[in-house]
Fold:
Amino acid sequence: MATFSLLDLERIVAERAAAPPSESHTAKLLAGGPAKPAKKLGEEAVEAAIAAVMGDRAGLVAEAADVLYHLLVTLRACGVSVDEVMAELARRTAQSGLAEKASRGSG
Structure:
């Protein structure tokens, strides 16, 4: 099975963003500004959480795919790359999770 990465998905989102909104769901989401894909991201995240709580493995897989797609569309709408997010994750994982969380303050 070929490896498919978030960078592959980011590239596909960029390609589809260039299409007319009448021909591309991605372009249609982006035409609504950051709020439209961010709203969909929130909806899909809730659906993924519900699938997890219900023990619906197939549902969780499907909803997680939706979350990742809508996250990448939201990132694009805000001008943030996957590389920037991965760099932040790399920075955070350079220390223990508890130490990293403490460095961010209360939350």
Notes: The longest helix spans residues 57-77. The chain has a mean pLDDT of 93. Residues 96 and 102 are 10 Å apart (CA to CA). The two ends are 40 Å apart (CA to CA).
